[in-house]
Amino acid sequence: MSSVTDTLPTRPTRSKMSDEGFISSLVAAVAISLFLIASLLVPNFFQWQNVVNLVTNNWAVIALGVGVSFLLVSGNFDLSVGGIVALSGVLSVWFAQSTEGANALSTGLGLPYGLAIACALLGALTIGALNALFVVRFGIPSIIVTLGTMMVARGIAQVITHGSQRNTNLPEAFGYLGNLSLFGTSIKFPVVLMGVLLVVAIFVERKMVFGRITYWIGANPEAATLSGIDRARHITKLYLFSAGIAGVVGILLASEYKSGFSNRGLLMEFDALVIALLGGVAIAGGFGSVIGMFFGAIILAVVTSAATGLVLSPDWQFILKAVAVFLAIVTQTWALARRNK
Amino acid sequence: MTEEQKISVLSVDGLTKDYPGVRAVDNVTFSIQNSVVHCLVGENGAGKSTLVKMLTGALAPTTGAMTVNGKTYAPTSPQEARVSGIATLFQELHVVNELTVLENLTLGMEKSRFGFFVKSDLEDRVTQTLATIEPAIDPAARVSTLSVAQKQIVEIARAASSGANIIIMDEPTAALSEREVERLFTVIRRLRENNVTVIYISHKLDEIFELGDTVTVMRDGKHITTCPLSDVDGRAELIEMMIGRTVFQSYSPRGKIGDKVVLKAEGLNTKLLKDVSFDIKEGEIIGFYGLVGAGKTEVARALFGADTFDGKVTFHGKPGGRTPKEAIAKGIALVPEERRTQGLFTSLTIRENVPVMNLPRVTQNGVFKAEDVRTAAEAFVTQLGIATSSIEKHTEKLSGGNQQKVVLAKCLFSQADLLLLDEPTRGVDVGAKTEIYEIIKDLANEGNAVAVFSSELEEVLGICDRVFLMFDGCLQEEIENGPNVDIAHILNVVTGGQDEDAR
Q1: Could you report the per-residue pLDDT of B332-341, keeping only the tens digit for each?
Q2: Would you call B471 an interface residue with chain A, using a CB distance cutoff of 8 Å?
């Protein structure tokens, strides 16, 4: 798990890169090559602005990928994040909508905006707590639990929006955060927040006890317990962390569109899972990195946007994604096996 | 056997198995006659299981030949062994809980055509076999509703109805109650009446005398004797044949052992343990010796808080930990029985393995002090003599002995003052073994208390100051180690004998 930076060759024996460093570099190399290939095929693809867009258009999935990656490394799934995005967004709208609307969909609880988003976040964390409760206390496989809470979260969102959206009667401040541009550029506040999250996550993963415990649990749960690690507590924290991120993403997306939509974030849980796997996170746990996940997201973004640029019908996008995923994962498995032969 | 009155169903000739550095089975020759219960005895490490693995096709012998039912026999898999007539009843059962008894019995033997089952006389045949050996089991019952003992009988019936005429049973009574053992013995006797030869492996010598017709004794990989049990003069002679004079006693009393009691256990009870009480003193190495399943691991896990138990553990005058986390915080560390599945993070490096049991020592505000971690790992590599090119090596690539040293390093890093070592040298080569013993002695000399849980007598008598003998979940006896320990007596106690028998 050692990063490239902390295996600096102070001795010749340490000059070999860790497996994680190797995979992350490999994924980065694939992402860059794909970008260059796309640049040859698609007119006007090779532009700085396009590079920026690849990141900024995918801030939500990348942010979700952080929580999902940590959980995967610990040996657990989180498929509930897409549902939580919908739920927290819808909740923030509903809480903030004023009390005297013309009909049910335009009437909310009239809370001040700050309180509204705090409560929405609390709703998101509740789903995370439910995940932890079932996985940790009742020992139910996480893939089943989070599949259930995914539907619970989206289901609640659907009930609150009557299967549609809520977008009227919102206070002025509601659209502020999601559309705030920083540094006098087009880069928006959510993107910056994602950047900060990435940096913090990488630091936690590489340098902090919290990160290392995640790897220990994923690498060998029984040995972790016998080494004095409180597994239940740590996995609970990870689910709350992941749900918290999803909650914030949901709130920011609702703010950006000034609406609460029950279908927002649909399939995002799978995109987050896919970019983590593309980035080399092991589905069995104990291996992977946030940097890899980030470049995994870039691979997916390049493929999708190049397809659009090639005027491929959007119908083909799923197939294209699938091909990219298979190729990337086969390459990784092959490269890692070859390296460790 | 010089003269063969009956037909020999199985004979081995000059069978030898070499592992790197060890000869596990050394030129073993004997034969077994038809329709007998043949017992195989020997201490742990005598080569019984290696011999059985060769008989069942799980291992190929280095040299030597085997003959089964008159034919040359060189199986490469358990399936081949089965076809030749040898079936094995392992300690862990291979029955399918969700199916009925009958379905289990016919499993894998069904006749089919184009993927559809074809009716045959198979069902009648297996039902009959089952009725012969144990009429009380209903063939239509779901296996999940049966007891462990009944499941075992189902498996025996499956072996018998598949045409095996030799059934190997490895410690079949380990999980059975006394009454169930009686039932099993009845089944085994019926098998014998039906021309089946049973090779019976057990540490419980009483069972051997009750059930066996002939016996083969092994010691240090060598064949000691094969003879009718009626020729053996009781437990004492059998034990003497098992141990010979080979127990090498290297114990030399170490300096002074403190008088201060570090840990006191009173009335530990679990599913297996029965009222276990003892104490451990400062600077002392104590041993828990017993056969597999005697309850050693359970004692270790209870002291470490890894399993729930009734009873009281006092450590340094305060209650012991109820979870591993608490135990470690109080100063108790455990080297678990299975290093790969319980002790080590095999996919991680040495550096990443070492600090886990004492994180505050190398962190500040939750952030690792990278240099400290490295220094600590390097120090252990040097101190314990871990053979590796670098601390960045993945522990799965280390040898067994070096892996065990990494687990030990983890525990030492916790700075515990009571170390629990469960089978600390299992699967470790001789050189590393000696080194680990030296480390243990050094730790005790520094005033730490060490408890060694082992099924190797030589190990326990080599390093421990006091030894607790365990049998069937009970602490049978406490002995002071020294030049005068009575090995025959120890073996008698841990195989379930009463005090008088061996004397």
Answers
A1: 999 998 888 8
A2: no
